[in-house]
Amino acid sequence: MKSGLNNMFDSKHYTPILKWKRAEQGALKALAQKHKQYITPLVQFVMPKPKPEEKFEDLVNNFEKLALQIPEKIIEAWSQAPIFIDVSLLFTTPLKAQSLKVIGERGSELGGVFIPVIHLNDEQDIKVATFSLAKKTDSGFCLRLICSDFLDMGKLGQDITNILKVSGLDHNKIDLLIDVKETEGDNKKFVQYFDLSQSIADLPKWRTFIFASGSFPENLSECKLDEENLLPRIDWKSWKAQVSLKNLNRKPSFADYTIQHPVYKETTQFFHPTSSIKYTLEDEWFIMKGQKQKFELYLASAAELIKDNKRFFGENFSDGDKYIMEKGKYFSTYIKNPALKGTGSTETWLKAGINHHLSLVAHQVSTLS
What we know:
It is built from 12 helices and 11 strands. By secondary structure, it is of the alpha/beta class. Strand 10 (about 275-280) and strand 11 (about 285-290) form a beta hairpin. The chain starts with 13 loop residues before the first strand and ends with a helix.
């Protein structure tokens, strides 16, 4: 059994669900060890942005080539600690199955612990690839349940029993992830599925038990320029309230989608986002909204944020906070000579925001009473 896989973690742990893109990779790599020890990420591989006139077959072929390089990049960003790998956003079943095999096996050769993730309704080829990888690398696997799986609890129980039988693995080699994705303006949906998840058979036997949701909005259209925008972290507040209840069959660990909407849309790659700082607070997100492609507004917002003693955590809290401090201090220099470079990009600001969020949530879950 590889180190860290037996009884992998308890409820005081955090699983951020991230797209495997450069900003997210950078945010993981820059995490301090004191925060990293409380985190096991789930990375979802996504298709590269297509070039003009690029054919579908070429897009698939390009990802197959990229997949060969992914294991080294994961090790570089996350070292050899356990990490969940999810291929569900890739385009074809053969590509998903092949990518699992290539990435998982190479990751294991490099000393990493790459845990494959499957859904109940995945095609047979993906399940076969998952179970084979789980046994070959001794990683086990993660079963990711979604809302539709809970429509018939009797069928869900049968499906889980079948997964256990076909995989040939016991509960203690399988991580159970309940993912309700987006939460609404209140926590009714969260509570509904949290309650249902408590009735899953043999809940204490699974290697880990994780409950995921996301409440960051799809866009910032409701936020206003030049105003304080505070959005409630419904996912975090709901989880915190539920795990404090007595008589739970098992407390799940926390999972979210950081400062991104939980439902991924390929088309978002083609739109320019606003130059907005998304800064996570204890129970809210502080949004300093900018305008599209006006990168100097990042600097102006950062300059305001670092002066806010009630909200800014300080440059020593995380790598992301250090970046915000540096850019905030740079603002006055830039204003004197806008020809200077150094505003940062959409990627670097997203990296900073995610890194701060990861650091804060790791601190929150680890210190929860």
